[in-house]
Amino acid sequence: MTESTPVDWELARTLAYEAGRAAVGGVETIPLAEADGRTLAEPLRTLTDLPAFPTSSIDGWAVRGSAPWRPVGRVLAGGTPPPLTEDGTCVEIATGAMVPEHATALIRIEDSVTGADGRVAGEPRTIPDRRLPGEEAHLGEELFPAGTPVDPAVVGVAATCGYETLGVRPEPRAALLVFGDELLTSGPPGGGRVRDSLGPQVPGWLRRYGATVGTVTGPVKDTLDAHLDAIRSALDTADLVCTTGGTMHGPVDHLHPALAELGASYIVNTVAVRPGFPMLLARVPGPDGRPRFLAGLPGNPQSAVIALVTLVAPLLAGLRGRALPPLPSVVAGADVAGRGDFTHLALAALDPAGRTATPAGHVGSAMLRGLANSHGFVVVRPGARAAAGDLVPFLPLPLTPGERP
């Protein structure tokens, strides 16, 4: 395993995604109430017509024949009414109730009058006030394909169809290893040592990208044996192991030798992006024949997050069986410099409308203040620059615009 030419940023994302898709898990059947946030492993099809029966969309009267109508009963939601067998009869009906067989019209309560003899008169509206069987979907119709993210609305549709469980993709399991003898895990930095900021924050990013986070271990000692032991232990339970630091070839950088010892193969080894280029993604053989993955994140905090959005997010999308979403376009709110032959990911905050991205300050590789005041990254391709007013690609962080700054 030797150094290689940095991979183009867009190609690196594609390679990470394709690696995940090739290793996507099988089908896990879970209760409907637990499905929010998961991914459909199978198409969601209707189990019956929707609606399954003719349904009133009003409170009023179901009538047969011409007015006036003699009331012969009441129909509430949840019941099966007898048919209307005579012209000139009607039943009071509630919203959501099954329309009786042979009813010729529905009359809204506000469009009706009841005479002294108890008979009902009124006019139906031009647009019928009933929902017909199959109006929304027919039996066996595909509503959502495999790969659809499950959100509360999808859960609601599945419940409407009558599902109690859903077949979804397993959640990828992730573990984090923090490398670096210079790191402190408590208290303020000082005496040549810095506080670890990646151990506390990386699990949150992994969860937002759909992984279940297990162990967080570190700081791991700066020896090859300690690296090997930590990686092997993490791979026992994780589909993806993320490491922080040690991605270069310095005197205490043992990640590359550890990967060689484990028989790993690079998917990506350094990326032509600034900040964050010394990142990597490797495939590690698993004892069950299914590969595991190791993502090497640089030790500088902002560079580590760029490695997460570049390699880990696409990998997890693939492992979850989801599509890799295209980058939206926004208007650059200020000039953004290029980085020569490298892609430049420039931290930026969106305006309230989500249309204009203004570059943030405090964006050095080792800084986090700019990240905490941003919604994502303006993408400036190699050999280019962005001028204020230009339409530019934007790589969002997994945040809802308006959450911050």
UniProtKB/TrEMBL annotation:
Top-tier EC class: transferase
GO CC field: cytosol
GO molecular function, a single term: molybdopterin molybdotransferase activity
Enzyme Commission identifier(s): 2.10.1.1
Start and end residues of each MoaB/Mog domain: 175-318
Classification via Pfam families: MoCF_biosynth, MoeA_C, MoeA_N
InterPro entries: MoaB/Mog-like_dom_sf, MoaB/Mog_dom, MoeA-like, MoeA_C_domain_IV, MoeA_C_domain_IV_sf, MoeA_linker/N, MoeA_linker/N_sf
Database matches in CDD domains: MoeA
Pathway(s) annotated for this protein in UniProt: Cofactor biosynthesis; molybdopterin biosynthesis
Reactions catalysed according to its record: adenylyl-molybdopterin + molybdate = Mo-molybdopterin + AMP + H(+)
UniProt keyword annotations, A-Z: Magnesium, Metal-binding, Molybdenum, Molybdenum cofactor biosynthesis, Transferase
Cofactor(s) the protein needs: Mg(2+)
GO biological process, one term: Mo-molybdopterin cofactor biosynthetic process
PANTHER family: GEPHYRIN, MOLYBDOPTERIN BIOSYNTHESIS PROTEIN
Family: Belongs to the MoeA family.
Function recorded in the entry: Catalyzes the insertion of molybdate into adenylated molybdopterin with the concomitant release of AMP.
Name listed for the protein in its UniProt record: Molybdopterin molybdenumtransferase
